[in-house]
């Protein structure tokens, strides 16, 4: 070791920052670079250097001023990227991912299957969906959904995910359907899948 203590502590600082960024991504799916510079009080360049390391490690990807959790499936599941619920192929646009506490990663074709999968699972660390308008990965539990719009997806009734209630409402004005939050969407899907059970 020839590094001076100052340089070593600088390395450690970067390391802690990168780990914190990764934890944030695992919880929230995506973050604006400007949020990160504010949170850590460092320059954009510093944040971009941290992000580049995470990108090189295959853990994250950058996208127009945002960074998001890498969407590529873990090596163990690569090649079998089919929906856990209905076995159909997974379109990138509507992809839904559950990260389990045991390290397993489960994928679904769209929020319809994703939310059904989520409602049957325990030990879920995070649930990530893709915003249908902007393509960003978002926390599925805090997202809003438009159900039964005129846009047909792989599964019926169609369920599309939006980062916030306002963009879901904008979409709903153009394409019909209803805007629901996460809990309401799960209740709606359960009702559709089993009207008799859901009534009790
Ligand atoms: Zn599916
Ligand atoms: Zn689907």
Q: Tell me about the biggest sheet?
A: 4 strands, antiparallel
Mean pLDDT: 89
In spatial order, strands of the major sheet run 5-4-6-7
**Which residue ranges are poorly predicted, with pLDDT under 50 across at least 5 consecutive positions?**
74-78
Distance between the termini: 67 Å
Radius of gyration, Cα only, in angstroms? 19 Å
User: How many beta-strand elements?
Assistant: 10
Sequence of secondary-structure elements: HEHHEEEEHEEEEHEHH
Distinct bound molecules: zinc ion
Structural class: alpha+beta
The proportion of residues forming helix, as a percent range, comes to 40-55%
Q: Domain count, please report it.
A: 2
The proportion of residues in beta strands is 15-25%
Enumerate how many helices there are, as a single number. Answer: 7
Outline: elongated
Task: Give an overview of the whole structure.
The protein is α+β, with helices and mostly antiparallel strands. It folds into two domains: 5-69, Arc Repressor Mutant, subunit A (Orthogonal Bundle), CATH 1.10.10; 75-198, no CATH class. It has helices spanning 5-28, 33-40, 44-56, 111-119, 165-175, 182-193, 195-198, and strands spanning 30-32, 60-63, 66-69, 96-100, 105-108, 124-130, 137-139, 144-147, 159-162, 178-181. The chain has a four-stranded antiparallel sheet. It has a three-stranded antiparallel sheet with strand order 1-3-2. Helix 1 (5-28) packs across helix 3 and helix 4 (111-119) crosses helix 6. It is elongated, with a radius of gyration of 19 Å. It starts with a helix and ends with a helix. The chain binds zinc ion (2 copies). One zinc ion (ZN) is lined by residues 83, 85-86, 88, 108-109, 113, 155.
């Amino acid at each position: 070791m020839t590094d001076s203590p100052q340089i070593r502590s600088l390395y450690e600082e970067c390391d802690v920052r990168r780990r914190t960024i990764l934890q944030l991504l695992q919880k929230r799916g995506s973050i604006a670079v400007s949020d990160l510079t504010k949170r850590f009080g460092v320059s954009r360049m510093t944040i971009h250097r941290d992000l580049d390391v995470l990108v090189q490690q295959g853990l994250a990807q950058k996208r127009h001023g945002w960074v998001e959790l890498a969407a590529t499936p873990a090596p163990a599941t690569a090649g079998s990227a089919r929906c856990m619920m209905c076995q159909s192929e997974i379109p990138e646009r509507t992809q839904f991912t559950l990260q389990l506490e045991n390290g397993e990663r489960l994928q679904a074709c769209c929020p319809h299957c994703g939310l059904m999968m989520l409602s049957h699972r325990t030990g879920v660390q995070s649930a990530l969906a893709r915003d249908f308008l902007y393509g960003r990965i978002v926390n599925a539990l805090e997202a809003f959904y438009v159900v039964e719009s005129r846009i047909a997806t792989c599964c019926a009734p169609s369920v599309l995910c939006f980062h916030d209630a306002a963009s879901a409402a904008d979409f709903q004005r153009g394409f019909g359907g209803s805007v629901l939050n996460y809990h309401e969407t799960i209740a709606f899907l359960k009702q559709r899948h089993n009207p008799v059970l859901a009534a009790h």
